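Hi R.,

As promised on Friday, here is the backbone we talked about, encoded as structure tokens. Could you run it through your design pipeline when you get a chance and send me back a sequence?
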């Protein structure tokens, strides 16, 4: 009954009781990107229900998110819907001691419709431009970037956890603002709406990067078609990567591209290793095995110059 009740009701005061630092930081303050605390509070309970109950998400490395100051959260972005950004947002909001908000950069395709635009803005997301990333970092906030963007999404099941080719903006922003990059591996999003077919003609019609046909959509009636499969999720937050170069290094294209490729390979390697530990979609992971894996990490990349 407790879980059912929280699906239908959450006020701003309820959120404040659970995440006081978060509400204190954002409530009643004008936000340049349109974040709305009341709107967020009424919808966050759905995110928490899916993260905790529907997906039974295991989160490791929450201590690697700094308690204050700017940082870039960079991860893999696999699947057909951006559910991963909301699960990571909710995990950091609820599990981090300072209840921090991640401001994710969101692709233009989620801004073509006014309802989607309103939802993304009021939930704290930011339109994906380099200047917006810099603005968020200069405000001392966490910015979420999926460096491969749509290149990693809309993949068939056979290629579902390829991180994709990273764009260099993530590294440029880190150098320019002297912010650490925090690598994050997320597993689970690719199977909740598994893509059977990419309907390219519909993608062109709606001007989106891909249009995934899944076992749920469009075969089942709404809202049943929108219910994700209850796949077990894992989120691993790695140690911050401090790039020991001055801000002007952001203009060195060769260096930026080299670091970008290194980050891409690093994330793919960790993703592959964690996938190898997974028992099955529905059983997930053995917590002790993952904890041992985390302890065994040398984190040599995080200390690189």
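Update: got your reply. Pasting your designed sequence below so it's all in one thread:
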């Amino acid at each position: 009954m407790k879980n059912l009740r929280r699906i239908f009701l959450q006020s701003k005061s309820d959120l404040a009781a659970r995440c006081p630092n978060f509400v204190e930081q954002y409530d009643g303050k004008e936000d340049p990107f349109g974040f709305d605390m009341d709107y967020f509070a009424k919808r966050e309970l759905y995110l928490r229900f899916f993260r905790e109950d529907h997906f039974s998400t295991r989160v490791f490395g929450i201590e690697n998110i700094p308690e204050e100051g700017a940082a870039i959260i960079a991860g893999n972005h696999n699947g057909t819907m951006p559910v991963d950004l909301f699960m990571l947002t909710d995990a950091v909001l609820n599990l981090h001691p300072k209840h921090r908000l991640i401001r994710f950069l969101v692709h233009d395709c989620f801004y073509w419709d006014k309802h989607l635009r309103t939802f993304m803005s009021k939930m704290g997301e930011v339109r994906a431009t380099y200047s917006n990333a810099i603005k968020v970092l200069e405000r001392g906030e966490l910015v979420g970037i999926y460096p491969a963007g749509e290149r990693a999404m809309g993949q068939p099941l056979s290629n579902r956890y390829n991180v994709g080719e990273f764009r260099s903006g993530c590294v440029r922003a880190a150098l320019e603002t002297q912010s650490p990059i925090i690598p994050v591996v997320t597993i689970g999003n690719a199977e909740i709406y598994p893509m059977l077919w990419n309907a390219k003609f519909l993608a062109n019609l709606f001007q989106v990067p891909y249009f995934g046909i899944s076992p749920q959509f469009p075969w089942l009636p709404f809202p049943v078609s929108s219910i994700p499969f209850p796949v077990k999720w894992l989120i691993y937050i790695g140690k911050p990567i401090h790039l020991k170069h001055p801000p002007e290094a952001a203009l060195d294209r060769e260096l930026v591209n080299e670091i970008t490729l290194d980050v891409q390979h690093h994330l793919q390697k960790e993703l592959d290793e964690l996938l190898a530990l997974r028992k099955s979609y529905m059983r997930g992971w053995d917590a002790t095995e993952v904890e041992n894996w985390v302890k065994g990490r040398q984190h040599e990349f995080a200390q690189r110059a």
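One thing I noticed while checking it: The chain has a mean pLDDT of 89.

Thanks again,
M.
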